[in-house]
Amino acid sequence: MKIADSHCHLGLFEKPLQVVENAKKHGIERFFSCATNLESMKKHLGLFAKEECVKTGLGLHPVDLLKLSEKEIGDSLAFLEENASKCHAIGEIGLDYKYAKTQKERDLQGKVFSTQVELAVKKKLPIAVHSRLAEQECLEILESLGAKKVLLHWFTYSKKSIPRAVENGFFMSCGPVIFSSKKDLEAALAIPQGLLLLETDCPVSFGGKQSDPTWVKMVANELSVHKKEPVEKIVQSAWKNYSRLFDNKP
Ligand SMILES: [Zn+2]
Known about the structure:
This protein is an alpha/beta fold. The chain has helices at 16-25, 38-47, 70-83, 103-123, 135-144, 162-168, 182-189, 216-227, 231-246, and strands at 3-8, 28-34, 54-58, 89-96, 127-132, 150-152, 171-174, 196-198, 205-206, 209-210.
């Protein structure tokens, strides 16, 4: 059974390559690991350049950018543009209205998100999208800029947003949050199989425990129980969707 973790932050582990090796022993063979700021972009390019199993995403995260000066944001975006041809996707990028409370901050997030979506569209790269309390605004920007290859990660959108995402052909990934949130589990169950991916967002902690890519198996098992479908079927279609998104496979 080939398993892919379609959204993680391997750069945040103390020993990222060891995490990859350990996960491989548990059947996790592909990883999409993404950066969130200039430092982690540099780290990703250095660490995983020779790791075929790791696809890398470069981008400036909406929460990270709130701590930066205008110049630092400019430098980060310039680095991204210069290095976009060395990565497999633009991300993790998006909008986060939990942290951007003022209109000024929200406008800034919107501007930086749009710039990065435009770059991804120009370079024909997939986009890994983070969205919190801003799902309609995120979808609007993606649609208006003609983004096609999109992964809405940590899918916690309301169920009513799913048809709009489906209409656009956007992929959606769900992770360990479905263990504890009934609302998010319900949304995950409503994602059509042809657009569903599995992720961990590791090393984020859940229930006081630090996650790692092997947790993607628990996510698949949880979905299997609630969907009443064999876990192999869920894992296989998620693998296929991962390849369609990141390898341009049909
Ligand atoms: Zn993430």
